[in-house]
Design goal:
three-stranded antiparallel sheet; binds S-adenosylmethionine; 417 residues; alpha/beta; TIM Barrel; binds iron/sulfur cluster
């Protein structure tokens, strides 16, 4: 599929130039004038490591984590030095299992709040075993408004396939009823071997009737670099499951607010992905500022070493061409299934149709897009194909980049052609 992704990239960026990442970078990040800036903080510790998971994570150890948080705060301090306080959209803590750092989250928040004014809420990912009364209360007290729990499945047979331990979901449901977060999201992985629609329907019903107002249904992806042993289902099997999930959720009145997510009231989204610009802190965190992309090292010791030497822990950077930045923007914005040319204009000061009029026309002709009042929406068919082809980008881009970065702390370069 490498040829397909290369040709598509050349077509939509109108250039033979690939995404050429280098190890040279600036220690100063100029974010003062960046529009729609979000924040992301990565905390890479987990009690048990799941073999299927591609994220940057290591086994939890209290001492190591405390030390990591000290450096995380140092990174925030470094990046914000010399900048005035900046208004940002949202803040998300991801991982790993960031709630394992509950005793230190206040320190991180204080540091961030000193430099940023967060206007759209604060989210955090939890493992089901983190859902305790004490943790929920403390998150609430600290000002978290959105929580996302990695359920994967409520059923033992699928948890076993994934190598995840079962959890006491009943107690979790009881606790969730006691707390009022704006968003309670639950993550599921679907298209596992022998999984049928009835299994997924049961999980969706259980989630929505036990506290969730938002669910994410991620199709299982076998990341080659992890050398896992779970087989992906075929394209047709996945499509049939996704179609049935979509129709079922729609029949219940749930709103599809992104390719893989559905919400009960259409307002309670949880998404750390569709930020136009964002600053990322911590190992493996990505930062995107107008025409700059940078990604931090995946290696915790190297992350700390670089900061100790008074340098940013950046591993690779890329200076986007204008078209590359537009493609990056469109790629992530399409996750929300909605593309508003006015937002594109606000962000780039350019007319979307002038740059991508032909693609929009073709998308409409093929039944992938619908236009209503000048706004483009992905149809269900469009969502499926987006998600299907996105997978090839995940293999060629993310698998390639994360695979390399999980082995080498500071690669000299990375060329994605
Ligand atoms: C950082 S984890 C969530 C929080 C927490 N660490 C947990 O596992 O409960 C983010 C989510 O990515 C999804 N995910 C991880 N690996 C995946 C894979 N190989 N294919 C599809 N989804 C995956 C899972 O649904 C997971 O909950
Ligand atoms: S799925 Fe969650 S708990 Fe498992 S390794 Fe990934 S981040 Fe850690």
């Amino acid at each position: 599929m490498g040829v397909f992704t290369s040709l598509t990239r050349m077509w939509i960026t109108r250039s033979f130039k690939g995404f050429d990442f280098s190890n040279t970078y600036e220690n100063y990040l100029d974010y003062d004038d960046c529009k729609k800036l979000g924040l992301y903080v990565h905390i890479p510790f987990c009690e048990d490591i799941c073999k299927f998971c591609p994220y940057c994570k290591v086994k939890y150890n209290k001492e190591k984590m405390d030390r990591y948080i000290d450096y995380l705060i140092a990174e925030i301090d470094f990046v914000t030095r010399g900048h005035k306080k900046k208004k940002v959209t949202s803040l998300y803590f991801g991982g790993g299992t960031p709630v394992l750092a509950i005793d230190r989250l206040e320190d991180v928040l204080n540091e961030l709040r000193e430099h940023f004014d967060i206007t759209e809420g604060i989210g955090i990912e939890l493992h089901p075993s983190n859902v305790t009364r004490d943790n929920l209360q403390r998150l609430k007290d600290m000002g978290f408004t959105k929580i996302s729990i990695g359920i994967q499945s409520f059923q033992d047979k699928f948890l076993n396939i994934l190598g995840r331990k079962n959890n006491d979901f009943e107690s979790m449901f009881t606790l969730l009823k006691e707390f009022d977060f704006e968003t309670i999201a639950m993550d599921f992985i679907f298209a596992l071997p022998n999984q049928g629609f009835e299994d997924l329907k049961a999980d969706i019903d259980t989630a929505f009737s036990n506290g969730a107002n938002h669910i994410a249904m991620y199709p299982f992806i076998d990341f080659g670099f992890l050398k896992g042993n779970i087989k992906e289902l075929s394209k047709n099997e996945k499509r049939s499951l996704l179609d049935r999930i979509t129709n079922y959720c729609k029949s219940k009145g749930y709103v599809r607010d992104s390719i893989w997510t559905f919400s009960k009231n259409g307002r309670s989204s949880y998404s750390s992905m569709t930020r136009e610009n964002f600053l990322g802190f911590g190992c493996s965190a990505t930062t995107v500022l107008d025409d700059i992309f940078k990604i931090n090292t995946f290696n915790i010791s190297s992350y700390q070493e670089r900061l100790g030497e008074n340098n940013l822990p950046t591993s690779l950077t890329l200076n986007f061409t204008k078209r590359q930045r537009m493609v990056y923007y469109l790629f992530w914005i399409m996750y929300s299934t909605k593309l508003d040319p006015r937002d594109f204009y606000d962000f780039f000061g350019e007319d979307l149709k002038r740059y991508y009029g032909m693609e929009l026309k073709i998308g409409k002709m093929l039944g992938f897009l619908e236009e209503k009042d000048g706004v483009y929406y992905l149809t269900d068919k469009g969502c499926f194909y987006y998600h299907h082809y996105e997978k090839y980008y995940t293999y060629d881009y993310i698998n390639n980049m994360w695979g390399k970065m999980s082995k080498v702390a500071f690669p000299e370069e990375l060329n994605i052609r």
